[in-house]
Amino acid sequence: MKIALDVMGGDHAPRNPMGGLKLALKELPQIEKIFLVGVPEVIEREMQHQEIAQSPKLEIIPAYQVVDMHDSGLDAVRKKKDSSISRAVDLVKDRRADAVVSAGHTGAAVTASLIKLRTLPHIERPAIAAIMPSMTHRWVLIDAGANPDSLPEHLVQNAVMGSAYARHVLGRDNPRIGLMSNGTEEDKGNALTKETSKLLRTTPGINFIGNVEGHDLWETPPDVVVCDGFTGNILLKTSEALAHALFGMIKAEIMASTFTKLGAMLAKPAFKRVHQKTNADESGGMPLLGLNGITIIAHGGASAYAMKNAIRMACETISHQVNPHIEAAISQHLLIHAHA
Fold it and tell me: Are 284 and 307 in contact (CB under 8 A)?
């Protein structure tokens, strides 16, 4: 497997992308090649600082421009063609790399991937799939931020892609699909949700269970929750912030007295397990589904551990052949729809 790593992307670049690389080289033997995309002098200096040895698996790809967070996604691609994210996506476009991993500007990653890689047949827009925790099982949130303004037809495609991902990556035989709304009743929601609900109820090839609301997501969620990118991104960031705040509040209460400190020592293994389930660093990154190539988007503040897991997710997406499965699912959906 060959991975293009955007070394200059992220709030803590190049330190954390390179730290993730160091961990990946130790833990992911299936990696054949990692292209380090960015300013060569910066990359070489960071390799020395982190004591990353030169290896035939590593190749530096020069890219001298960096996308700033205030750049628009389109401007980042058109005006900064020598940026690390553009050069990294080019490697996938040219089939030198199997996937690109970036913790940089999400809009730039999405735009560069869409323009350079194009979408799979019959997919109009790509969508970010986030793996989310619950009390019972992991589930897929799609779209988690690629398209803030979506049409009902786009959400139907998200449902088909999310179903294929849950089936072949999470191992769900007949993935249950829910539509995010403010109530489970069919008449609840805004205009987009209501029209999407109508379409999903008549969409062949998916197991649509109807609307879901907030409390469903953390107790007994469906395997896939479909929404537009605006709603999904707010949901993703709010849930991650809430998990972080809850652990902070629990820690503050534990440290308030000697007795609670003693109790916490006994419960420490349980706390660690819950933290592992709810920590976004465990998944590391989110695949941008629907492209003729693989792009993994990590959080801007991703740690080295998260970047390692984002590289791992790229490897899993490659090995599970997610794109061929999505193509097959879309083709089957269109075929069934044509004969319905």
Answer: yes
Cβ neighbours for 106, distance < 8 A, ≥ 6 positions apart:
73, 145, 297, 300
Q: Using one digit for the tens of pLDDT, what is the confidence trace for 239-269?
A: 989 888 988 998 898 888 888 888 888 888 8
CATH class given for the domain over 129-280: alpha beta
Smallest CA-to-CA distance from 88 within 316, 314, 299, 339 is with: 314
Q: Identify the H or E element spanning 108.
A: helix 106-117
Given a contact cutoff of 8 angstroms between Cβ atoms, the answer to whether 181 and 212 are in contact is yes
pTM of full prediction above 0.70: yes
Beta bridge partners, 207, equal 176
SS3 assignment, position 283 = coil
pLDDT digits over 66-119, tens only?
887 778 888 778 888 899 999 999 999 999 999 999 999 999 999 999 999 999
CATH class given for the domain over 1-123+290-323: alpha beta
Worst-scoring range by mean pLDDT, 174-188, 288-302, 325-339? Answer: 325-339
Tokens 């912030």 sit at which residue?
241
CATH 3.40.718.10 residue ranges for the chain: 1-123+290-323, 129-280
Torsion, Cα 304 295 301 214, to 10 degrees, reads -120
